[in-house]
């Protein structure tokens, strides 16, 4: 009764899986029935065959044979190679190792000739499985590594995981447990990211359990085996279920738990028989034999021993072993012939490469000789040109030296012109105090001349005369001091050489030089005088400058602004000329802005405004050194900056910044 209940529960748990698989298979069968006899039908047949491989190998064989026949009829080489590989896989699971080996070699050769990389990788993996069954672990490891390399090139990570778990199984059989554990961990990590196809999941869990058991981690091994069995129910994978059950039974046997070992060994044998999986049938039969011998149950032990011997003979009988040896020898011969052919081909390629290299060297030598000859001729021409260029360069240097000398003379002339203009202004200024002095002197003489000899003067008249003379002398002294000041300034302007900076009130300096301009004189025939707006920053600290030099630069800027507004005033009736001058502190610098609403400049003219000898004034009306001199005084003499912003017909604004 207990066995019936267990069987009912098992069938109930399998019902959803079976139904899902049946639905998928039914869908594939309908697609196959509707597909024409072409490559698409071949691929659908192979896909349907694969869906039955872990549960109904007979159906897999029939479908793979149909796919092979259609592929050969329509000339679909890829389908033919993959159908052969699937047939070889089922042959290997049924214990037909010679046939499986021959079929997989045929599939591998066909896939390489096409080429079909995915089919090649599958055949290499299948050959590794056959080598693993034959306990040729080194050969199996080579096949698995080749398969993994192809899958990695194609980016098929799920199949790379399958190759890793097979490699780990080889290392486990060889006793290299650290490499086996590392390979299984890499497979587990890849499967976590790529869980499809599901058949690889149960295989990886089973192989990891085997490694854990070899390492002595019994609890972890049981956990992996149980997870593998549960996964086989999700994917209806009878092959891996049989192998995982056998490994559980063997581990229980080593743990001295014979009842559990017996139960799982029965399950492994029964499940392996369902899919004709001979290797697990052999292992489960041998384990049942040992378990019944330990229980002194001779009949059962003898029964399972006979089953194990029959299975062993079907796998490794003398006839099959000889066929395998013959196949292996033929494969070795074929591979040797391929290697020799490759070596001959390589030797031919090497000879051709050598001949090509000799030809290339000859061509390069000829080209080098020709290039050398052309280079010598070019060098002769180049030397002649260099000689001519050197002569021209010397002529240009001489002309440039003369030009620089002329420019220096013109700069000096401009400076002296400025001194002359300043002297003329000062002479005008001197006229007033000298005229006043002369007038007061003449008045005083007249007052003295009015005294007649012998004439009695009243005390009051005498006091008036003395007061007037005193006042006249005071006025003469005052205007004399003013004349001396003007003369001193004229001498300072005429003085040459570098002068030391001194603390200067910038606001006072700007105001002083504004007074020296003629901004108050209206232009003849103009409707209105120039408006002058000033805005001086209060509390501006003295700045170390050379007052006369900076004043000269500012005077040039002022005169330039006045000239611009007068030019526009002459062109536009009703125009109001305006010039503004402001000072302020900007960070570590003192800023002076001079803005006018005159004719302005175009971008091309503004780019050359500070170049020496560039002028927009009519010939004879300027030398073009005014802004250039102002730029040099501010930037070189005071380590400041002079910038300009302008728009033709609208305005021009010069910004002076001096380090404070």
Automatic annotation (TrEMBL):
EC class: transferase
Q: Which organism is it from?
A: Hymenobacter lapidarius
What transmembrane ranges does the database entry give?
352-369
Q: What is its EC number?
A: 2.7.13.3
Instruction: Show the taxonomic lineage.
Output: Bacteria, Pseudomonadati, Bacteroidota, Cytophagia, Cytophagales
Name the coiled-coil region(s): 379-413
Q: Where is the Histidine kinase domain?
A: 425-660
Q: Which CDD domains match?
A: HisKA
Name of the protein in question = histidine kinase
Q: Record's InterPro entries?
A: HATPase_C_sf, HATPase_dom, His_kinase_dom, HisK_dim/P_dom, HisK_dim/P_sf, Sig_transdc_His_kin-like_C, TPR-like_helical_dom_sf, TPR_rpt
Keyword Zinc appears in the UniProt entry = no
């Amino acid at each position: 009764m207990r066995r019936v209940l267990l069987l009912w529960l098992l069938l109930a748990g399998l019902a959803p899986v079976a139904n899902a698989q049946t639905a998928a298979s039914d869908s594939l069968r309908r697609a196959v029935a509707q597909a024409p006899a072409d490559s698409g039908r071949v691929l659908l047949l192979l896909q349907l065959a694969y869906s039955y491989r872990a549960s109904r190998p007979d159906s897999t064989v029939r479908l793979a044979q149909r796919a092979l026949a259609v592929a050969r009829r329509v000339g679909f080489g890829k389908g033919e190679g993959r159908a052969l590989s699937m047939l070889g896989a089922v042959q290997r699971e049924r214990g037909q190792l010679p046939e499986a080996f021959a079929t997989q070699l045929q599939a591998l050769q066909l896939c390489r000739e096409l080429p079909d990389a995915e089919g090649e990788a599958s055949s290499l993996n299948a050959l590794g499985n056959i080598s693993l069954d034959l306990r040729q672990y080194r050969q199996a490891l080579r096949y698995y590594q080749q398969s993994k390399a192809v899958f990695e090139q194609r980016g098929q990570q799920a199949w790379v995981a399958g190759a890793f778990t097979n490699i780990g199984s080889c290392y486990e059989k060889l006793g290299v447990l650290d490499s086996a554990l590392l390979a299984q961990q890499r497979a587990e990590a890849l499967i976590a990211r790529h869980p499809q196809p599901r058949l690889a999941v149960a295989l990886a869990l089973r192989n990891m359990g085997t490694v854990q058991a070899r390492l002595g981690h019994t609890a972890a091994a049981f956990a992996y085996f149980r997870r593998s069995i549960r996964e086989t129910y999700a994917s209806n994978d009878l092959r891996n279920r049989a192998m995982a059950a056998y490994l559980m039974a063997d581990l229980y046997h080593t743990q001295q738990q014979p009842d559990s070992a017996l139960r799982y060994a029965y399950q492994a044998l029964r499940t392996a028989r369902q899919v004709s999986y001979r290797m697990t049938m052999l292992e489960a039969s041998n384990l049942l034999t040992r378990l019944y011998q330990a229980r002194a149950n001779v009949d059962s032990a003898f029964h399972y021993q006979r089953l194990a011997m029959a299975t062993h003979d079907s796998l490794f009988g003398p006839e099959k072993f000889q066929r395998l040896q013959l196949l292996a020898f033929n494969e070795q011969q074929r591979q040797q012939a391929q290697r020799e052919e490759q070596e001959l081909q390589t030797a031919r390629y090497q000879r051709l490469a050598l001949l090509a290299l000799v030809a290339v060297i000859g061509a390069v030598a000829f080209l080098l000789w020709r290039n050398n000859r052309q280079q010598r001729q070019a060098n002769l021409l180049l030397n002649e040109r260099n000689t001519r260029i050197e002569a021209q360069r010397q002529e240009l240097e001489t002309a440039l030296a003369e030009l620089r000398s002329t420019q220096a003379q013109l700069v000096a002339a401009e400076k002296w012109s400025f001194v002359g203009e300043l002297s003329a202004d000062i002479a005008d200024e001197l006229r007033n105090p000298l005229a006043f002095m002369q007038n007061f002197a003449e008045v005083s003489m007249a007052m003295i001349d009015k005294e007649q000899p012998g004439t009695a003067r009243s005390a009051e008249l005498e006091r008036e005369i003395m007061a007037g003379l005193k006042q006249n002398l005071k006025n003469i002294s005052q205007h004399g001091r003013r004349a001396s000041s003007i003369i001193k300034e004229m001498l300072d302007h005429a003085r040459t050489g570098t002068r030391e900076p001194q603390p200067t009130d910038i606001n006072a300096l700007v105001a002083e030089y504004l007074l020296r301009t003629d901004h108050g004189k209206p232009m003849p025939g103009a409707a209105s005088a120039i408006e002058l707006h000033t805005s001086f920053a209060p509390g501006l600290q003295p700045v170390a400058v050379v007052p006369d030099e900076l004043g000269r630069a500012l005077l040039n800027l002022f005169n330039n602004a006045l000239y611009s507004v007068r030019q526009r005033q002459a062109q536009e009736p009703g125009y109001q000329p305006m010039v503004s001058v402001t000072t302020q502190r900007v960070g570590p610098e003192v800023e002076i802005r001079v803005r006018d609403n005159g004719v302005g400049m175009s971008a091309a003219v503004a780019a050359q405004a500070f170049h020496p000898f560039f002028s927009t004034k009519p010939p004879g009306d300027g030398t073009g050194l005014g802004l250039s001199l102002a730029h040099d005084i501010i930037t070189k003499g005071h380590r400041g900056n002079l910038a300009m912003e302008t728009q033709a017909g609208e305005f021009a604004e010069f910004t002076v910044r001096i380090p404070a």
